[in-house]
Predict the structure of DUF1364 family protein.
Amino acid sequence: MSSKTTRSAKTVPRPYSGPSFQDVATADFKKPDRIESAAIRASARGEDCTFQIVGVCNQQTDTTVLCHLPDESHGMSRKADDLSSAYGCSACHDVIDGRVKHDWQPGEKDFYMRRAQNRTWRRLREKGLLIIKGAA
């Protein structure tokens, strides 16, 4: 830098010149049509819980339902897509939805939700309810 050019110590160049997070977050966004499947919902009946939250899971397959997880498709009076879901027992479902208080550690809830969703997708694929083109 030349002696004529001075830069404030607080000034940091921004490599990204696109819209800011705030611009994107507040932009008009039409939510896509909700993905629903009666077959996927019914497939939860009798399944093992995929959350298996330590100290919470009751492991009662007769209480397992398709639990919807938060995503961009949900909102006021609107559940998330059936793809954003996981098989869960009544106890894990209550904790995930916040009906029962749980002392979550940082990142723990996200870990359980992501793991349960992946486990559920694998089961749906085994049942032929989720087809991934090109997958073996």
